[in-house]
Design a protein that fits this description.
The complex is a heterodimer of chains A (279) and B (261). With 279 residues, chain A is mostly helical. Chain A has a single domain, classed as MetI-like (MetI-like fold), CATH 1.10.3720. In chain A, a hairpin with a 2-residue loop joins strand 1 and strand 2. The radius of gyration of chain A is 24 Å and the shape is globular. With 261 residues, chain B is an all-alpha fold. Chain B has a single domain, classed as MetI-like fold. Helix content of chain B is 72%, strand content 0%. In chain B, helix 3 packs antiparallel against helix 10 and helix 6 packs antiparallel against helix 9. The two termini of chain B are 27 Å apart. The chains are: A mainly alpha (279), B mainly alpha (261). Chains A and B meet through helix 1, helix 2, helix 4, helix 5 and helix 6 of A and helix 1, helix 3, helix 4, helix 5 and helix 6 of B.
Chain lengths: 279, 261
Amino acid sequence: MKKRALRGGVWLALILPGVLFITVFMLIPLFSILFSTFSADGSFSLDNYGKLIQSVYFQQVFGRSVRLSLLSTVLCAVLGFPCAYYISRYSKRKGLMMALAVFPMFTSPVIRSFSWMVILGRKGIVNQFLVNVGLFSRPQSLLYNEFSMTVGFVQLFLPQMILSLLGIMDSIPEDLTEAAGSLGAPRFVAFLRIVFPLSVSGLVTGAVLVFTGCMTAYTTPQLLGATDTQVLSTMVYQYAMSLRDWVQASAVAMVMIVVTMLISSVFNRLSKKINPMAT
Amino acid sequence: MKKQHHIALGLITFLVYVFLIGPLLIIMAASFGEQNALVFPGQGFTLKWYAQVFQMSSFLRAALLSIEIAFAATAIALLLGVPAAYALNRYRFPGKNAVKTLFLSPVLIPCIVLGFIMLRYVVNQWNLSVIPSLLIGHTLLSVPYVMRVVTSSLANFDFAMEEAAGSLGAPKGYAFFHIVLPNIKSGIASACVMAVINSFNNVSLSTFLTAPGVSMLPIEIMGYVEYHFDPTIAALATVMMLVTLGVMLLIEKTLGLQTVV
C-alpha cells in the first residue's frame, strides 16, 4: 500500500473532480459573500454588521429565531424523551414505531406545514373543538403567529430527536437497570441514576439537530408565520428576493452560518465528551 | 427479558405519535371531501380532486423536474463522491481530513444560504440558467450523503481482497468494479435513497431558483397554498405520501430501514 501511495497521482485524480466542484460552486461563492460583507466602498469595514446589529428589526428577528428554536428544542426533548424510552424498553413493535417516526421525516416539509394550515385554520378541527367546548365564542386565527410556527417546528424535528435518543438508549444494556433493580433500587431511581445519565449524549445530539434545524428552517416559518413573525431564514430570502439587497442578505446569511456552526461544534464536542458508552 | 407494560409512558408515546402522524392522516382524509374548501371532517366521498391534480400541467411539469433533478444530482454526487471516498480509504496522502471535511461541508451550510449563493453567483454572476444551477445546488446537497455512507461501507471492506485480485492479474479498474463495488453496493444504495428523498423534498435551496415555467414541485405547491385553499393540494399530498410509503416499504424489504436512517 505504501508503494502505491508513493507512486501518487491516483488519489489526486480520484478526489480532484469533487474538490473542484465543491470549491468552485460552494467555497468561492461563500468566501465571496463573506468578503462582500466586510467591505464598504471598496475598503475594509464592519459597517454592514454594525448596521445589522443596530437595527431593531434585525434584533427582533434574531431574538425570535433563537427563542423559537430554543422553545422547540425543549419541547422536542420533553416529548421525545419519554417516547424514545418507551419504544426502547417497552414497545413490542420497535420497527413499526421507528418507521412511523421516519415516515413524517421523509414527507415534504411543505405538506407537513400545510397540514397545520388545515388543522389550525379558522375552519380547522382545533377551532371547531374549542368553540364547541365553549373556550372560544367564535373561531380565532391560530395561524400565522409564533404559536403555529412552534407547533410546526416541533412536528418537523421531533422524529430526529426520537431517533437520536433511540440510538443511544438501545445501546444501554438492560442488564444495568435489572442489576439496579435486583439490588433494591426502585425502577424510577434506576431510570434516574442509570438510563438518564447514559442518554444525555443522545439528548444533546438530538437537541443540536433540532436547534440548528429550527434556526435554518425556511418552509415552516414561511407557511405558518407572517410578515411580522420573520426569522433569519425568511429574512435572507426577503433581502435577496424582494429587496435585492445582496450585502444585507449576505450578512444575515453569515450570522446564520456562524451561529449554527458554533452551536453544533460546541455541543457535539460536549456530547462526545459526556458519552460514557464511547470508546 | 419479558417486556413489561408502562401505561403512562405508553399513553404519552401514543399522543406524541398522534401529533406526528395525525396531521398527515387528516390531509389524506380531507382529500376525499366533496366541498370546495378544505375542511376536516369533510362530507361525502369523491375522487375529483385526484382527477384535477393529474390535469394540472404546472404540477406535473414541476414533479417531473423535481424527479429529474433529484436523480441527476444524485448520479453526479456518486461520480464525485465514490472515487473520493475510495481514495480516502485506500491511499495515504496529506490533508485527508481536510478533504473529507470538504466533502461533508455542504451539510454544515444552511440550505437557505446555499440557495442564496447559487442565485447570487451561479445565476446572477456566472449567468448559468436555472436548471443547471438547480442541478449544481442539488448535487452539493447530495455529496455529503454519498461521502458519509460510502466511507463507512469502505471502512468495513477488506482491501486485501482487492490486492488479491490484483496479484491474480486483474487490472486496477476491473478489481474496483468487480470486487470493491459489489461489496459496498448496499451502502451506495442507501446513500442514493437518502440523497434522492432529501433533494426531492428540498425547499430552501430551490426557492431561489425559479424561472417562468421552471420550478421544483415543493416550490410550486408552496406558491399554490399561499393563495388557494382547496383539496387539490390534499390530493397531491396524499399521492406523494403514498409514494413515500412505497419507497419506505421497498427500503425495508431490501436494505432494512435501520440502515438508512
